[in-house]
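lol ok so funny story. i was supposed to be doing the assay writeup but got distracted and ended up predicting the structure for this chain instead. priorities right. anyway since i did it might as well share w the group, maybe its usefull for someone
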Amino acid sequence: MTYQANFPEKFLEIKNKVIENILLGADPQADIELIYEWLSVERWDDLLGELDSWAMNLSYLAELKFDDENMKYYLEDTQDIVNVEFTNKMRLDYAREMIDYETMHGELVSINSYRLERTDGKFAYIGCYIETQGQGGAVPKWCGTFKTKEDFIDYIKDLGFIFADEFTSVPDEKILGLWR
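and the output, tada:
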């Protein structure tokens, strides 16, 4: 998104300071929360229009599902597993089924960044992931400020998220590394 000509006058100083702080490597000031709220309420469509990707929190899925007990429970109806010794191949197959299921039926989040730009061309990004919380609707979880969109994407990946283009290609080592 280019310079926001319709950015509220009352937030221009905050926006400019946010950009300055990220360029200097300093923390954003606390009143960035006002920009978050403005985007969440007044500019919701603009925020949603800045979709970077759909994602799934693989680390959280692994906490819930990636262990031998859950796999045993899952397989009980399909085969006799009383004396079966689980192998890494079985773990990988099961984990990929859980990832596929979450992809089709689970709660994916949208990854969104919003470019803040000053009139001098300097810019920064603020980013969030948006969860759907039942009747509460879509709720942005703000992640902070970033020099580049790539910095934001790296931050999201460090939280344990995988992106839509990775759903079917998670490396074996990553899945086994998350196994409990």
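The radius of gyration is 20 Å. The helical segments are 9-24, 32-41, 44-48, 58-65, 68-75, 88-105, 149-158, 172-178.
back to the writeup now i swear
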